[in-house]
């Protein structure tokens, strides 16, 4: 999915650095805590390579993705649900073997449209009484989202699906919605003209799940508080504590408010042209230049870990020199620089490449 600071393309390079510096000894016996999980791309990458994963984020839609991709270890069977719905024999959601997962997605894709909260507030016809009707989704796709989200919730309440199946279906919806939203990248604003992809009929995508024989853990809340609570209760020392915090002043909660609302489906009070939900409790201290370095120090100095791995953009609000000065007294420090193309920059004078700094601190 499109996500600010997504490390999907950088994860293999970070892994290569850790291998180069012999940080990865035996993945099967090492733990990896992704403290700012976001889209879970890093956690998934390291889970595939045998690590035991812990992950956390203060956004609920990220928690849904974590429950599906990180904590879940198998392909859902939907055994109980099969007793209550009839699957179509000609289900064609997947090009490969029609598993129960594929058939459930096909069932959801064919639900009758419903004019629920998303249609009423984020589609042009549903919000036509506003001074500027919202154009996040086409009328048809907004109604499909409402129908699918309502059905998933009903199945869970009736216990037709278990917790793991519930979050897998939510993750499928969250991932799919991103492909049809009429936005430029984030949800802080909608496009005033229809993007071609937003006019296509929404279809739930089959997400790739990572099978594993380890028990993995994910958490919903402020990352440092989750880490401290976990370590206080279990005296857990992580082999690798991975930090990929926000690096500029753009708060994630308002930029992804609509995914948050679809994930929670809690009919929140909303306001403004964009229809923002209340997000004051989801502010990250890393998005403020005055508090970011202090927050990093609290984690680096007091957390229990063997290695701290910090990934940070070269254009971040914390200066590289300040991070060097903070981390050097805490142990053996390595800093590597990974250049990569600037994301769709419209500034012709800007450098075509930016860098990701990766600090590796041996405690």
Distance between the termini: 34 Å
CATH architecture of the largest domain: 3-Layer(aba) Sandwich
Poorly predicted sequence stretches spanning 5 or more consecutive residues:
91-97
CATH superfamily of the largest domain: Vaccinia Virus protein VP39
Task: Choose one word for the global shape.
Answer: globular
Strands side by side in the biggest sheet: 3-2-1-4-7-9-8
Describe the sheet with the most strands.
7 strands, mixed
Strand content: 5-15%
Radius of gyration (Å): 21 Å
Structural class: alpha/beta
Mean pLDDT: 92
Question: What is the multimeric organization of the chains shown?
Answer: single chain
Order of helices and strands: HEHEHHHHHEHEHHEEHEHEE
Proportion in helices = 25-40%
What is the CATH third-level topology name of the largest domain? Rossmann fold
GO biological process, one term: methylation
EC number: 2.1.1.72
Catalytic activity: a 2'-deoxyadenosine in DNA + S-adenosyl-L-methionine = an N(6)-methyl-2'-deoxyadenosine in DNA + S-adenosyl-L-homocysteine + H(+)
Protein name: site-specific DNA-methyltransferase (adenine-specific)
């Amino acid at each position: 999915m499109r996500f600010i600071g997504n490390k999907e393309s950088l994860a293999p390079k970070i892994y290569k650095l850790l291998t180069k510096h012999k940080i990865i000894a035996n993945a099967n016996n090492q733990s990896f805590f992704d403290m700012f999980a976001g889209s879970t791309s890093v956690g998934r990458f390291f889970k595939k390579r045998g690590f035991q994963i812990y992950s956390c984020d203060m956004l609920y839609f990220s928690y849904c993705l974590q429950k599906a991709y990180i904590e879940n270890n198998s392909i859902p069977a939907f055994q109980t649900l099969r007793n209550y719905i009839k699957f179509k024999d000609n289900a064609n959601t997947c090009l490969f073997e029609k598993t129960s997962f594929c058939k459930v997605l096909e069932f959801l894709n064919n639900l009758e449209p419903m004019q629920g909260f998303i249609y009423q507030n984020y589609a042009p016809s549903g919000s036509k009484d506003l001074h500027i009707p919202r154009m996040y989704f086409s009328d048809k796709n907004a109604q499909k989202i409402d129908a699918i989200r309502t059905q998933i919730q009903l199945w869970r309440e009736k216990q037709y699906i278990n917790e793991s199946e519930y979050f897998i279906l939510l993750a499928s919806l969250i991932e799919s919605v991103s492909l049809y939203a009429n936005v430029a990248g984030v949800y802080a604003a909608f496009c005033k003209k229809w993007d071609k992809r937003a006019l296509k009929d929404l279809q739930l995508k089959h997400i790739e799940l990572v099978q594993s024989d380890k028990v993995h853990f994910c958490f919903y809340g402020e990352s440092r508080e989750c880490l401290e609570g976990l370590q206080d209760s279990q005296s857990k020392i992580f082999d690798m504590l991975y930090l990929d915090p926000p690096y500029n002043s753009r708060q994630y909660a308002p930029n992804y408010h609509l995914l948050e609302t679809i994930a929670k489906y809690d009919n929140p009070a909303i306001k403004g042209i964009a229809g923002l939900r209340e997000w004051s409790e989801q502010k990250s201290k890393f998005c403020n230049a005055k508090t970011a370095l202090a927050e990093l120090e609290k984690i680096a100095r007091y957390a229990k870990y063997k290695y701290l791995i910090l990934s940070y953009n070269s254009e971040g609000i914390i200066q590289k020199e300040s991070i060097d000065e903070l981390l050097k007294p805490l142990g053996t420090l390595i800093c590597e620089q990974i250049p990569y193309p600037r994301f769709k920059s419209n500034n012709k004078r800007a450098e075509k490449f930016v860098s990701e700094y990766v600090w590796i601190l041996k405690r």
